[in-house]
Please model this.
Amino acid sequence: MHSSFSHNFPTIEAPDAIHRHLSGSKDVDSLSADEMVSYQTESLTAIVRRAYDKSPFYRAKMEQAGVGPREVQRLDDLRKLPFLTKDELRGKPWQLLACDKRDISLVQVSTGTTGGKEIYMMYTRRDHLLPDLALRYSKLFAVGPGDVCLNALPYEMSAAGLAFHKTFMDGQHATVLPVGKGGAYSTPAKTITVMEDLRPNVVATSPSWAIVLAEEAAQRGFDPKSLHLKKMWLTGEGCSPAFRKRVENAWGTTANFFYGSLECGMLGIECDVHDGYHVPQAHAIVEFVDPVTGAPVLAGEIGEIVVTALLRYDSPLIRFRTGDLGLLEEAPCTCGTMLPRFRMRGRAVDQVRAEGRSVSPLHLEDALMQISEVGNWFEFVVPRSGDGRVKIRCELAEGVQPSSSLIEAIVAKMRAATGLSFDLELEDHMPRPTSKATRVVHA
Ligand SMILES: [Zn+2]
Model:
């Protein structure tokens, strides 16, 4: 019996670097720094060698840069290799392949929120399963058998839903409830029904959807706090500390951010300290470079985040420029995890201009969401000229009565927090997002 099924359950072949350094029950977040360097070095050299040997695209890039696999022996040698940009991937589905097309089992496509032609990422069965089957981060991602995980992230035209699904189910051996987020059958009402019936104790979703679900629950007389969640993970949208606090209050649990992307997969996991993202070092090498010169920046200086995937052998991702800005934090985290930590500084393209100044929408959101009279739904109407003032359009919190003195008080608080002047327009009901929340509109 056993052998007759074996073709249906092929084992995946783990690369040598994993065999040698991460096999057994070792947890990635308790490896010593030396062990991590050995593992990363061995993975990197194997991936660069494979990219050169099997991918005409990478071979041409390396030859043009005058570098080959022999020149990459240590982690520092990574910087000899050329960068990979989004533009090299747009509209070119098979660009990164270092294997036969027929070995690809999964293709994911970009959500298209950043504009331009689609980016596709291809996975062989091994590349798809390796990140979860081979590795655990049990301090940072403490989920296991017996946990019931509500996965309210999009499964369609997005990599997020399936990625968390696989991590919960295959990686952590927990129970997963694939309710999705706004798909054909995925209404907030149905999701609340599933929650009431199955009582999950872990939730993964986006910040704005967490509030959409909490509001739906309240309308039904169901208190999400009664679930006594042990953890919530939020991903897929920028989120200010003050909006996160609102999510935590509504759900009665700690909500940690998770940073990842279609191209790179998992890139940063927040611990409960909420003071930066820990780098999942078994998955990726993260560099910070000057966005203009491409030279590495010093620890503590803001640079563009550049990623090399360490578990992607058949469609390698080497020195990919994410367009996101961040900085490495040298001080160890109080959570006790040894994995290094970085802070995000958003994307340069997301900054808006008002009154002749450049300002981060997340900074505006944070200030607004600290004002308890303001409801959970808002948008900033930013002048196209860049000189005018921002108009805030928002709901008031439930039970708060509008008045001109309240409007003046909100505007004064916003000015004190940001140094900007504002107009304010109160709305009875702002539309709820069905996709990514839109916080900024230009007028
Ligand atoms: Zn930490």
In short: The CA atoms of residues 62 and 68 lie 6 Å apart. The chain is about 30% helix and 25% strand.
